[in-house]
Amino acid sequence: MTTTVTSNKVEASSRKKEKTPVAPAAGAVANLGPAFDPFDQGHPFKPSNGPATPDLDVGVGKSDKVHIRLQQRNGRKTLTTVQGLPDKYDYRKLLKVMKKEFACNGTIVREEDADLDENTPAVKKGAGLGDVLQFQGDHRIQIRDFLIAKGFYTEAEAKDSVIVHGY
C-alpha cells in the first residue's frame, strides 16, 4: 500500500506487482499450440483441438463415398446395406428397380426412424449417415455392378467412390 500526496489530498492505493512476461530462449519453440489430452473422451471420429491428432476422414456419413456392407442377421440370413448415396437420387425409385433386378426384398432406413429404434443394424444413433438402403441377402458385388451399369459411376470413379466392405 502506497500513499501519495497530491495538492492537499492524500490518496491510498493498493498496487499489485505485475509480472513481466519472460522472453523465451533463442532456441526454444515459441508457439506450441493448444494442449493435447490423449485421454480425452471426445467424439472418436471428430478431430480434437490438439495438434497431435490427425484429421480423420472416416468415409462414413455424408461424404462422396458409397459404402456397401454385409451384416449378419441370424443363422445364414444376411442384410446388404448401401449408405452414402447422393441425395439427388430418389431412393424409392432406386429401391424399386434394385429389388426387381436382384430378386430380393429391401427397405429404406431413414435416419430419423433409426433414432427411435436402437436395434436397427444399419444406422447408429446420431451418426449422420443419412438414409440407408437395406437388401435381404448378399448383393454387394451386384449392387456395385448395378451402380456402374446404370451410369451412377464410371468404372474409374467406382474404384475410388464405391467401397465394398468384406472382400
UniProtKB/TrEMBL annotation:
Segments of this protein annotated with the region Disordered: 1-56
Top-rank taxon: Eukaryota
Keyword Protein biosynthesis in annotation: yes
Keywords, ordered alphabetically: Initiation factor, Protein biosynthesis
Sequence ranges of Polar residues compositional bias: 1-11
One Gene Ontology molecular-function label: translation initiation factor activity
CDD domains: eIF1_SUI1
Domain SUI1: 66-151
Family: Belongs to the SUI1 family.
Name of the featured protein: Translation initiation factor SUI1
Native source organism of the sequence: Tremella mesenterica
